[in-house]
Design a protein that fits this description.
single chain, 132 residues, alpha+beta, three-stranded mixed sheet, two-stranded antiparallel sheet, 5 helices, 5 strands, 20% strand, WS/DGAT domain-containing protein
């Protein structure tokens, strides 16, 4: 049921031109993930106290393995900085056929961010199981 609702919502977003395709973002190679995260953080800085206390980003990463000094990068975890007054940020990125989440929270405002991370992991697992 959740997968059906998610699929329906995503089709609506795509039909109304509210999303940017992953291919479009990946086509900006050399300019993509770190730069887009930085631009988003700067744009959100002035708005965060008035409009929201949660940021969620999704920036596609390379789908080929990357190497540094001959060693293969195995995983990547995004870190989205918190702006003043912001409680939680969640980053999502893809790398080499997998998806990775990074959670960042104000310890005083959100002391149980680990619970949120566990719940997201459970829900993603259920979606994968349902889709598989």
């Amino acid at each position: 049921m959740r997968l059906t609702r998610l699929s329906y919502a995503m089709r609506g977003i795509a039909l109304h031109g509210q999303s940017v395709g992953a291919d479009s973002l990946i086509a900006l190679t050399g300019f993509a993930p770190p730069t887009l995260h930085a631009l988003g953080a700067r744009a959100a800085r002035g708005l965060s106290r008035r409009l929201f206390n949660l940021v969620v980003t999704n920036v596609p990463g390379p789908q080929l393995p990357l190497y540094a000094a001959g060693s293969r990068m195995l995983e990547v975890f995004p870190v989205v900085p918190l702006a003043r007054g912001q409680g939680v940020s969640i980053g999502m990125t893809s790398y080499d056929g997998r998806v990775y989440f990074g959670f960042n929270a104000d310890r005083d405002g959100v002391g149980d961010v680990d619970v949120l991370a566990d719940l997201v992991e459970q829900e993603v697992g259920q979606l994968v199981e349902t889709a598989g």
